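[Meeting: bench + compute handoff]

Bench side (C.D.) handed over the final construct sequence. Compute side (W.E.) agreed to return the predicted structure before the next meeting so the bench team could plan truncations. Sequence as handed over:
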Amino acid sequence: MSFSAHRLGAEGSPEEKAWLEELEQERHDDIVVWYGGNGANAPPHALLDVLAALHGPRRKPVLLPVKARPDLYVLHAVLDRQSLSIRHEPLIMIGNVPIPGNLEGLEELRSSGKLREMMQHIGWIKEENKRAARPIKPAKLKRNRVLSEDEIALKKA
């Protein structure tokens, strides 16, 4: 089954809204990086490094290269309708929230704490345990009583 822009109907139509809701549910707890709309072949490693620095190697973003897609013009049209673009830079979607994929903007989000908050919201970063530290209990040592020579002799007898 092929996809074409006319299947979305008019901008704001029920068909378009239903399609967008279905897409949102597919990746509501993921990070998706669209790249290659500007002709670049390589994944945006600098952006991926910033994301990995926050959550570690546990999960990997979904990478969607679009350079070689035969329907790239349709994809551009769909994203343009949403006031999003992949023509000049990657597009990062964190829990369906679009973030332009320029390194400066991503670094600004990271330094403000907003990026960490977004990643916590979708479960990529676990919230730190905020319980009060419990006092350390001393270990209970069981002392062995030293037996006198008389007690040792009585035990042997």
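W.E. noted at the follow-up: The first strand starts at residue 31 and ends at 35. C.D. will use this when planning the next construct.
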